Amino acid sequence: MNKQQRFTEDDSKSDDNTYLLRLFVTGASPNSSRAISNLKEICETYLKGKYDLEIIDVYQQPLMAESEQIIALPLLIKKHPSPERRLIGDMSDIEKVLKGLNLPIMQ
């Protein structure tokens, strides 16, 4: 995995409604891989065209992890829109992730 991967829709569409997300992972561990896959699917399903996702490997960017005071991984931080939220785990509980992102839960 690169030091940092960034997945974004067209940057020219960026505005106050864009979700800024950071996913901190530990290399290519199974749990990290599941979190990346699950989160990408959630973003494409519920936030298509309205998100900017950074995937940060704490082994390659330890200072960034330290600055965010990371205590458990994988960790998703929703930076924008406010309020900031933190979700720990492999992002497999879609309902929990949607609630954490303050998105309506589709039944």
Explain the overall architecture.
It is a single chain. The protein has 3 helices and 5 strands. The chain has 107 residues and is α+β, with helices and mostly antiparallel strands. It has a single domain (4-100), classed as 3-Layer(aba) Sandwich (Glutaredoxin). The longest helix has 17 residues, at 30-46.
Short description:
With 107 residues, this protein is α+β, with helices and mostly antiparallel strands.
Percentage of β-strand residues? 25-35%
CATH topology: Glutaredoxin
Question: Span between N and C termini?
Answer: 35 Å
Shape: globular
Mean pLDDT: 88
Main sheet: strands, sense, barrel: 5 strands, mixed
Number of strands: 5
Helix content: 25-40%
Task: Tell me the CATH superfamily.
Answer: Glutaredoxin
Helices and strands, in N-to-C order?
EEHEHEEH
Count of discrete domains:
1
Question: Can you count the helices?
Answer: 3
